[in-house]
Amino acid sequence: SNAEPMGRELAFLQGEYDKARATGRARVVVVQGPAGVGKSHLLGLFEKQLSVTGVSVLSTQAAPESRGASFSLFQPLLSAVLEQLSNEGASGTAQAEVALRLGQRLGVEQRAQTFDAVADVFVKAARGSPAFVFTDLENADSGSLELLRYVLRVVATPGAEAGGLWVLSFRQWE
C-alpha cells in the first residue's frame, strides 16, 4: 500500500522540520522521483500537517509555461514573505524594491545587489522557523535556480541566524 511509505516520508519531513526548529539552523531536504510517484501529494500532506500546528508554510511551484520568465519561481513567494514580514513590523521599503526588480533584466552589479537583498529578506523570514517548499523545480527558469542556490548558500552559512526547513522537489531525470 502507498499509505505506509507516505507515513514514513511524512515522519521524516516532520523530523527534519523539528531539527531545524530546535537548532535554529536551516535544513534542506530534497524530494525527487519519477512523475506520478506522489511527490506533490506528500508535500501537500506535509504542508497541511505543519499548518495545523501553526507553522508558517511558504510554498511556490515552478510552472512549465513560466520557464521563459526571469525569477518566476520567486515572484509569488517573495510577495508572501514580504507580506508576512510587514505584518511582523519589519521594514519593507528596500524589500519592496527588490520584488519589483526581480521582473526586470538586471546588469551584473544590480543582479548582485538584488540577490543579496532577496537573501536578506529570506534570512529575516527564516528566523521564525517556517517551512519553505519549492515544487516542480525541473520547470524553473535558470534565473530562479541561480537565485535559489544563492539564497540556500546564505541561509545555510553558519551564524546566518536563519532557520526553517527548505524543501526542494523535482522530477527525477529519466
Structure description:
The protein is an alpha/beta fold and 174 residues long. 53% of the residues lie in helices and 14% in strands. The protein has helices at residues 3-23, 39-52, 74-87, 93-101, 108-126, 142-156, and strands at 27-33, 57-61, 131-135, 165-171. It has a 4-stranded parallel sheet, sandwiched between helices. Helix 1 packs across helix 2 (39-52) and helix 4 packs across helix 5. It is globular and about 45 Å long. The mean pLDDT is 83.
Compute the CA-based radius of gyration: 16 Å
Question: What order do the SSEs take from the amino end to the carboxyl end, as H and E?
Answer: HEHEHHHEHE
Distance between the termini: 24 Å
Low-confidence stretches: none
Quick description:
By secondary structure, the chain is an alpha/beta fold. The protein has helices spanning 3-23, 39-52, 74-87, 93-101, 108-126, 142-156, and strands at 27-33, 57-61, 131-135, 165-171. A 4-stranded parallel sheet has the order 1-4-3-2, with helices on both faces.
